[in-house]
Every structure is written in structure tokens, then in C-alpha cells.
């Protein structure tokens, strides 16, 4: 299966604030907030630095959180990316 690369929208105004075991995302443009687990927060942070493809995100998560890059992680990542897209926090790249 081929996956798109992802990025934060070009003019997004996202702030990440860490509290104990979760991170709160504040979209200063819309005023929306969302609580994220540490992996989701890391993915959003990486995407805010530039476009990333699915395989690169899998590798970064596996390395950073010392978890296997298996079907379970792939399923989690697909669900996470879908959720972040529904919240208008990320979008597929136009490449």
C-alpha cells in the first residue's frame, strides 16, 4: 500500500504544551485544543518541521520510543494520521 507524505498546513499556528504524561495542542488560528499522547505529539512536532512519509515516521517512532516497527505500530500510525487530518492539524503533501 502506498501512503502519502504528510505535513502541517503551510500557515498553521500550532503550539504544543507538555503537561506530565500528555501534550496539549493549541491551534491558535481556530482556538481548538487537543490532548495527545507522547507519540502523537512527537509525530505532530516532526511534521511541523517538514513533510514526512509514512515509512520515515514509522522509523522515527520505532527509534525514539524503542518499539517495534510492526503491524501494530502501522495501524496506530494510520489511525493517528487520520485523526490529525480530521482535526485539520496535518494534510497530505501535494507532491
UniProtKB/TrEMBL annotation:
Any Pfam family: PqqD
Gene3D superfamilies for the chain: Coenzyme PQQ synthesis protein D (PqqD)
Top-rank taxon, per record: Bacteria
Protein name: HPr-rel-A system PqqD family peptide chaperone
Lineage, opening ranks: Bacteria, Pseudomonadati, Pseudomonadota, Gammaproteobacteria, Chromatiales
